[in-house]
Amino acid sequence: MTDTAIGTAIGQEQRDEAIAEALTAGRSLRAVRREFGISTTELDAALDRLWPIDTAARLRTIKTDLGQLNQLTQVFYEKALAGDVPAGTVTVKLWERKHQLLGLDAVQRIDLQIINPPKVPPRHELIREAIERLTGRQLPNDGNGRPLDNDSAVDALADTDHPKHK
Known about the structure:
The chain is mostly helical. The protein has seven helices and no strands.
């Protein structure tokens, strides 16, 4: 790495740290962008460098939290064994948090609900109903509302007043 590249990297790292301080001090993203004269893309890149959110970063955070929880648990567990009831409550809360982080508090029971889809008439029935509405006539059917299977249903649709059918 050249001296210029090293200087640029150090300058960028210092700027990123200054951005982090400004954000943690409570300044808005817009105010930080204006203060440092950077675009939204440049701010996003700095935030990615400062606080990456990827699988490795998440695992690192979980491992760090677990280590700290284990230390706290040890202290409060010993106090709880000595009879300190509030320390026992804190110990249980710490265990709950640890189980949450590790996914050990997953649901033990699953209730399945079977939902039947609503009955929808077949498409050909919808077409037949539309034709009946448009023509103002009811098409012949077999007595149960189903259209006839022979050609008489087609003939029933024919307009007998039309010159072509005379």
